[in-house]
Amino acid sequence: MARIAVKVHPRARCTALSGRYGDTWKLDLAAPPADGKANQECLRWIAERAGVPRSRVRIVTGATSRQKIIDVEGMTQEELERRLKLDASTR
Fold it and tell me: Any idea which architecture 2-89 has in CATH?
């Protein structure tokens, strides 16, 4: 299982990685923070980039915070980091 830390910025123009700050990924979300929409967009986007079903991605801590810890089942830490780095470099 892989685990990542993200700091989300809701209400962005599009959902994409905007960089990194230490061990934390900065993730812009094209969804408002109301009614859990930003959390759902965060999980959807990470599952898509990781290439795993949405059911294998969950927020461990920070469901009501901008700082989140997210687990991704079915892949190694190295593979997840590699996929996120590829996505960040194409932006």
Answer: 2-Layer Sandwich (3.30)
